[in-house]
Structures are given as C-alpha cells and as structure tokens.
Specification:
Layout lengths: L1 E5 L3 H13 L4 E5 L5 E3 L4 H6 L9 E3 L1 H8 L2 E3 L4 E5 L4 E4 L2 E4 L2 E4 L3 E3 L12 E3 L3 H13 L4 E5 L3 H12 L3 E5 L12 H13 L3 E3 L4 E6 L3 E6 L2 E4 L2 E4 L3 E3 L11 E2 L2 E2 L12 E3 L6 E2 L6 E2 L4 H15 L13 E6 L2 E7 L2 H6 L4 E9 L10 E9 L5 E8 L3 H13 L4 H5 L15 H14 L4 E2 L1 H5 L7 E4 L10 E2 L5 H5 L8 E4 L4 H12 L5 E4 L2 H4 L14 H9 L2 E3 L6 E6 L8 H14 L4 E3 L5 E7 L3 H10 L15 E2 L12 H14 L12 E4 L13 E9 L13 H5 L5 E4 L2 E4 L22 E9 L11 E2 L7 H18 L6 H8 L1 H10 L4 H6 L9
Parallel strand pairs: 1-2, 1-9, 2-5, 9-22, 11-18, 12-13, 12-18, 13-14, 30-34, 31-32, 31-33, 33-34, 39-40, 40-41
Antiparallel strand pairs: 3-4, 6-7, 7-8, 10-19, 15-16, 16-17, 20-21, 23-24, 25-26, 26-29, 27-28, 28-29, 35-36, 36-38, 37-38, 41-44, 42-43, 44-45
Length: about 850
C-alpha cells in the first residue's frame, strides 16, 4: 500500500507516524511546500515573546530525523498542484506520482486583509516559524515601541501578551463587537477586554482595518475610529484552508473546507482529509464544524492512521475546546457551545456565572475561577463552559470536555469524587460547585440576573443592596446579614431588590434570609462585584464616604472641594505629549462626561474638569478604549516630567526620549508596586533646571562637562570662555584661564568658544540628583558623584533608587527623608556600588503613606 500525504505539519506527520507504526511495510510519502515539517505552530507567539528562546525549539522534528524515526519518505519544498482521482495520481513539482490512498493535510494559510500597505516592512502574519523569527528580529533590530495586532482571536491575544512582555505598547483591534468572537460569550469576553486594558493593552472592538500607512516601513494603521501609530503590525484576522488547488478535483467542499465523514473520508474513493483543511462534526449538534486547532489535527490524524491500517476508528466530533494565556494573572479556557450558539441551535439553554476559589483560600497563591456553565434547562445536560482565572483553567475545561462528551448532566458532577488537597483544589471541587449553583438556579432556589442581563439594564427598577460583610458599594444600602430581620424592616416585601456582594455567594445567603422573611422580588447579581462593573450612584443625601473618596482618588479622580460628588479626573500623558487622536478623545470625553473644560497640571498631566461621580466609571472606560489611562496618585512612581530639551537651544540630551523610557519602564512597569510614599522623577535637558529636577525625589540633568586643555591657553586679554560662562566660574588669573571645576555645572556653553582649542573636548552625560522635594518641606537633591554616560546606566540607577526606597524606606517618609535618615554617603554607595535583589525587594509587603 502506497499512501501519499500532502502536508507535513501536525495532521500529516501524525498520520504518517502512527500509520507506519501500525503498518511498517506500507510505503508512506509526505510532500510539503515548506522547508520544515512538524513545527510547533501554537508556540510561535511564545517565541516572539522570548519564552521559547531558539528556533530549534519550535521544530518538533527535522525531515531527516522524522524519516529516521518513522521510515516515512519526506519531500520538502515540494508543491502538489493537482489531484486526479480517476488515475489516482498527484502532480508535484510538475511530475505525476501515483498513490493507493491519498491523505490531504495541507492545513490553512493566513488571510491577508484586502487593504493598502500589507506589503510594508514591519507588517507580519503569524503562521510559520519564519514569521515568528522575522517578527522577533524586526522588533529587536528596529527597537519597536508600538504595535497594532489586527484580530482578537486566540493567536492575536497570545501575540499581544508576548509583545507587551517585551515592553512594546500594544493595541488590539477587531471588527467584531467583542474579543474572541464565537468562542466566548460577550460577558466573559468583556471581562477579558477589561483585564487587558487594565494591564495596559489598548483594545478596540467594532474597529475595522482600512489601510496600513508608511513609506519605507510601517508607521501606523488607519481605522474607522482614527489613525493608530505603530512601528509593528501583526495581521491575525484569521485563516482559510489552503485548498484552492483542489477546486476542480471533484472533492466536496464548503467555503474551501473539505467535507469528510466520521472516518475522515471524502466523497472521492481512497481520498481522506485531516487538519485545518477539513470539516469535522460537532459532537453536540452533529453538524459540520471547522476546528482549526492543533489538537484536532493530531487527534484526527491518529484516528485516520488506525482506519487506514485496518482498524476503523471513528472521530466522534469536536467541542471547540481551547485555552489561551491572556497575561500572567489571567488565562481563559472554553469548550462546547456558547450560550448564544446553544440558543441558536434550538436548545432551551440556561447559564450561570459564578466566582469560586481555585484552591484552598488560605493556601499561598490561591486565586479564583470565573466559571460560566451552559446547560439544557429541562434535562440539565451540560452544553458548554467558559472559565477564566489565574490557575489551572485547562483542568476545569478538561472536566467539562469529558462530561459533555459522555452526555453528563450537571447533577452528575455534584457528587463526583474529585481530587482534593489545599495546594490543588477546594474540598468541593470548583467545577462541582459551579454545577450546584446552576442547579440551584434551575430549581428556583437561586434567583439572579446574569451579567449580560445586568449590563443590558434589566436591573434598572431594582434598588441596589450591598451584601458585602461591611459597607463596600457606593450608592448602595448595606444589608447586615447577621441582623437580617432588623435590616429588612426598611423594605416592603414586594420591593425589587438587587443583592450584590463580592462574588455572589453572600448575595445568595442574603436572598435565602429575605425569602424566609417573605420577600418575593429579590435578585442576586451573578459574579458580583468581582466580575461586573457595578453601576454606581451617589448615596441618599449626596454624601460619599471617606473610603470611597480615597478609592476614586487612587484612580486619579480628585474631588472638587466645592461639591460633594464632582471630581477632576487626571489623565496620564507621556510627559505632556499626546497624539492628535488622543486629543480628540479627551475633548470628546470632557464634553460627554465632564464640564467640557480641560486643565493642565504642573506635572504635565491633563485633567478633565467637572466629572460627576456617576460618570467616573463610564469616563475611565471611554478613555481606556482610546488608549488613555487615569491615575497619577498614591504611593507609587508618579508620572515623569521633563523640559523640552529636544527643542530648547540649551538642551544637551533627548529629554523626550529619556522621559518616555522612564514612563514605560517605571510609571507603567512599576504601576502595581507600592512604595513608602510617592516617588517623583524629573528630567532636565541642561543645568538651567527649568523643571527643577533637583527638587524631585530623583532628578536627571543633561551634562556637557569640559575637559579643559589649559596648555592651549594663549592668555588673551578678552577671554571668550570667561565671557561665555553663565555662572562665572571661568576667570582670568594672572592673564591665564582658570576654572573652578567643583563649581562648574556642566552646561557646555563654553564649548568651542576658545579659538585655540582649550574647550574643544567634552564628556557628554547625565547627572543624577537624589533626595529632592518640593511642598510643605523643601529639600534640594544632591548629585551622585558619578557622571553617567549612557541612558542604560541612568535607567538602571533609577530602578535601583526605586528598589532601595521600597526596601529601606519607612512608610510615610519621602525619599529625601530616607536619604537624610540613612546618610547620603550610604545611599550613594548602595546605588553605585551594591547589588540589589530585585525579586526579594518586590516580594516585600510595603504599606504606602501618600495621602494624595
């Protein structure tokens, strides 16, 4: 038996390897267009980010190694251009080759949007190892700072996460109304969007790509929502089966996918298809489904090999199972039908969303799962699941896969004997707990609003009741569960009450108490405040609590002292720099949510004036959609400020370039790092000190330090160096030039002033001042003794100063106080001569002392 396999990545090589093991005497030949076979396509985003270090790690098998291991013949760079089912031949590189059985495993190819600019340098797809290698090389060699990822599917989000990990600012755009369309429901997808934006990834849905701009290389993308600057663009809008060469072969195809039966057989005799080029069956609905996943390719490839070897092996269908790492704090997995798809397929579907511990809550590094289950209401049969969390979401998904595949009901899981120990799970497994909550909802024990219903306004007529253990939700009345009868006396028994706690459990307990007291119209918000964006309102009486005012201050919202519920919201800029598109967004935001006025702060951030309390959350969400964030308060690294040394005639350094690096590495990179107090950084282009760098916790001043060659001094009666020195430390003494080097401030104004070359040579660099402050107490920073000659040295020293302050500072003291307490010489020695254990310092628990 001679079997020809067209395609040598996942499905093709899996079929060949298994078939050769089953039938060692079979002649198996692989033809593939690529120079590689059996590469890890799913690992490409992680090569881009550097988690996978070398190209060799992406290649599972070389052609030579695969042939040696399996006995299969492999022809790389061999393109099959035609299939003749009647003569049972294929045309490969212009030659005709016969077969007994033919396996088509040609996979898929990326979709290139039909827009201008896709051919520009800096624009890439992600499909082959060469794509990933080229992306990483291009990003590093061109020092890319801004990337746009077109497409919010699995691969797009994985690439976005890995680019962000490399310090690149990332915007994800998708023309769909949500991320991961068709894979996750809109509510879980929106949680992912909010998480990404909180991590600094800009997400724009309902945003179609119109064109890609640039001349010699990419400069940005144009969308219906405006222009987005970028020096790297990743096209991840989708893939299509690579089957165009088969259009006249007689194969039955739908939208380019080859139609197969449960044994991967096509409509033509002795021709089979597996992998991304073939349709399979959906295990729940029985309908056709395109499952372009590496897992499906390998599973169907193995099943087909058994069938070709004489052991008929049915592939019973896919569930669309998938898992994706969103960030270090969040992963997402799914299987089965979404709620939307289940209803579209005619099921009377019911869903529940719950938040539960992922392991014993007291165990270190415990977190939570957000689990959404979809089931058939009448039979309780499980139809689908989506789960989000920091922990083992794949384990949760795999439990659902087994259950759905076996036709299990939610009831079946409740008493299953799942593994338990505190480091791994909870005593009642979180999957079983989710099934119990679903059954409570179906039975009527648990009356709820789903997150989607709440977002659509279903709870408008309900009074918001805070069911937390202590008052937590602004604008809500707190219900003391320990005094239920007393707390319930203020409401009528038929009043509409929305019960909101952290996750939903305490809301359920409150609902039980209220039902027992005769209340008839209570609802619990599924997922509670952990999952949902709670629509806030000013409490009765119009007075916000001190705790709430402090909370919103941490978001960059400073209360207008004239009003109880009006705030000025601080928007972070890159040292005062914003794009024209960002400026338009700020203007629109000020008109929609504020008074229409915009103000600049002394540290070059922007404040939208007159924002009412209930508009804070919508404003922040609007700004996030346009790549803008609020903040700039708290015991953290504050937004950096600098002069315009790039344009000032006296500027000695690229202040904008340096301040943007500091902004990315320390304001954004250290955004979640608590310090003993606020930490302000300023960059001055020269010793003119326009932004007073030495009055900041850390200041950087550009320097041009003269290397005087006094041997060249001719004793001119009128010395040009003396005349040029603005601080008069260069003087003539006994007819010769003298300079007080300790008093020289390195302004460089004397450069080339001497016609005989006394001031021709200079050292360009940076002076770092530490321990300055301005405010109720004033302190002038002192310069470190070292003249820094590179940005890298400066940035590393800034980081050491921040880490030192976190490690040895005391809550409530500014860095100036720390320097004074410990002594300048001690601090200088630590910064210039000692190593600081970054990991250990960041793991410390530090309490901040800033009040603004």
């Amino acid at each position: 038996m001679k079997v020809i396999i067209i395609g040598g990545v996942a499905a093709g090589t899996k079929t060949a390897a298994k078939l050769k093991r089953e039938n060692p005497n079979a002649e198996i030949v692989i033809y593939t267009k690529s120079a590689d076979i059996s590469y890890a396509g799913c690992g490409l985003p992680y090569y881009i980010g550097g988690s996978i270090e070398s190209r060799e790690e992406l290649i599972v098998n070389s052609p030579e190694k695969f042939m040696g291991l399996t006995g299969t013949t492999v022809h790389t760079k061999s393109e099959v251009t035609a299939v003749d089912p009647e003569s049972k031949t294929v045309t490969v590189n212009g030659e005709t080759v016969g077969y007994d059985r033919l396996v088509i495993a040609v996979g898929a190819q990326p979709v290139i949007p039909p827009v201008k600019g896709t051919e520009l340098p800096g624009v890439f797809c992600v499909r082959t190892p060469e794509d990933a290698i080229d992306i990483r090389s291009y990003a590093e060699e061109n020092n890319c700072k801004k990337a746009v990822v077109v497409g919010g599917g699995f691969i797009g989000l994985e690439v976005a996460e890995n680019l962000k990990a490399k310090g690149i600012s990332v915007t994800v755009i998708d023309m769909a109304s949500q991320l991961l369309p068709g894979l996750f429901d809109s509510d879980t997808a929106d949680y992912i969007r909010r998480h990404l934006q909180a991590k600094g990834v800009r997400v724009l849905t309902k945003t179609a790509l119109e064109s890609i701009s640039g001349t010699d290389s990419v400069q940005g993308v144009q969308t219906a929502s405006g222009f987005i600057p970028a020096d790297l663009v990743i096209l991840s809008v989708g893939i299509r089966p690579a089957t165009k060469f088969l259009e006249n072969s007689g194969l039955n195809m739908e939208k380019g996918c080859i139609v197969t039966d449960e044994f991967q057989a096509t409509n033509l005799p002795d021709i089979y298809a597996v992998g991304d080029c073939a349709l399979v069956k959906n295990r729940i609905t029985g309908g056709s489904q395109w499952s372009a996943m590496g897992s499906t390719a390998n599973i169907t490839g193995r099943a087909l090999a058994l069938t070709l070897g004489g052991e008929q092996t049915e592939y019973k269908g896919c569930l669309g199972t998938g898992v994706v790492k969103i960030s270090d704090e969040l992963s997402a997995a799914r299987t089965g039908l979404t709620e939307e798809k289940a209803k579209a397929e005619g099921f009377d579907a019911v869903s529940v969303l719950c938040v539960s511990d992922d392991k014993a809550h007291y165990y270190p590094d415990s977190s939570f799962f957000i689990t959404k289950l979809i089931a058939e209401r009448s039979s309780h049969r499980l139809l689908g699941m989506q789960v989000l969390g920091k922990g083992a979401v794949d384990k949760m998904a795999d439990i659902a896969v087994v259950g759905i595949s076996m036709g299990c009901k939610a009831d079946d899981f409740v008493t299953m004997d799942f593994a338990y120990a505190p480091p791994f799970s909870t005593a009642i497994h979180p999957f079983a707990a989710a099934c119990s909550i679903l059954l409570n909802k179906i039975s009527g024990r648990f009356d709820t609003f789903t997150p989607a219903e709440y977002a659509d306004g279903a709870a408008k007529s309900y009074k918001l009741i805070d069911a937390h253990p202590a008052p937590t939700l602004p604008g809500a009345e707190w219900f003391d569960l320990t005094k239920a009868a007393e707390a319930s006396a203020k409401y009528s028994k038929d009043e509409n009450l929305l019960l909101v706690c952290a996750r939903g459990k305490r809301g359920y307990l409150t609902q039980n108490k209220l039902k027992a007291l005769g209340f008839t119209n209570t609802r619990v918000l599924e997922g509670g405040a952990t999952f949902n964006v709670i629509k806030r309102s000013v409490p009765n009486g119009g007075k916000l609590s001190a705790e709430e005012i402090k909370r919103v201050k941490g978001l960059g919202c400073l209360q207008d002292k004239r009003f109880g519920d009006v705030f000025n919201v601080r928007i972070i800029t890159r040292n005062g720099k914003i794009t024209a598109e960002e400026n338009k967004a700020i203007t629109e935001a000020a008109e929609l949510y504020g008074s229409g006025e915009v103000a600049m702060t002394t540290r070059l951030t922007i404040e939208i004036q007159g924002v009412r309390y209930e508009n804070i959350d919508p404003l922040i969400a609007f700004l996030a959609e346009h790549g803008l964030e609020t903040g700039g308060t708290g015991s953290k690294v504050r937004p950096v400020v600098s002069c315009k040394g790039t344009t000032c005639q006296y500027g000695l350094i690229d202040t904008f370039g340096l301040s943007e690096k500091i902004h990315e590495r320390f304001y954004k990179g250290y955004h979640d790092v608590i310090l003993p107090h606020k930490f302000k950084i300023a960059v001055g282009g020269c010793p003119n000190n326009c932004v007073k760098p030495d009055l900041n916790d850390l200041g950087i001043i550009g320097q041009r330090v003269p290397m005087f060659d006094f041997s060249k001094c001719r004793g001119c009666k009128k010395c040009q160096v003396e005349t040029a020195c603005p601080i008069k430390v260069a003087t003539l003494e006994n007819g010769m030039l003298k300079v007080d080097s300790d008093a020289c401030n390195g302004c460089g104004r004397c450069k080339s002033k001497c016609p005989f070359g006394v001031t021709e040579e200079y050292t360009n660099g940076y002076r770092i001042y530490i321990g300055g402050r301005w405010g109720k107490k004033i302190a002038n920073g002192k310069p470190l003794s070292k003249l820094f000659t590179s940005e890298a040295e400066v940035l590393d020293t800034v980081e050491k100063a921040i880490l030192f302050f976190r490690d040895e500072g005391i809550t409530g003291e500014r860095f100036a106080d720390t320097v004074n307490r410990l002594g300048f010489e001690y601090v200088e020695d630590k910064l210039l001569n000692s190593d600081i254990d970054k990991s250990a310092v960041l793991e410390k628990k530090v309490k901040g002392g800033a009040t603004c």
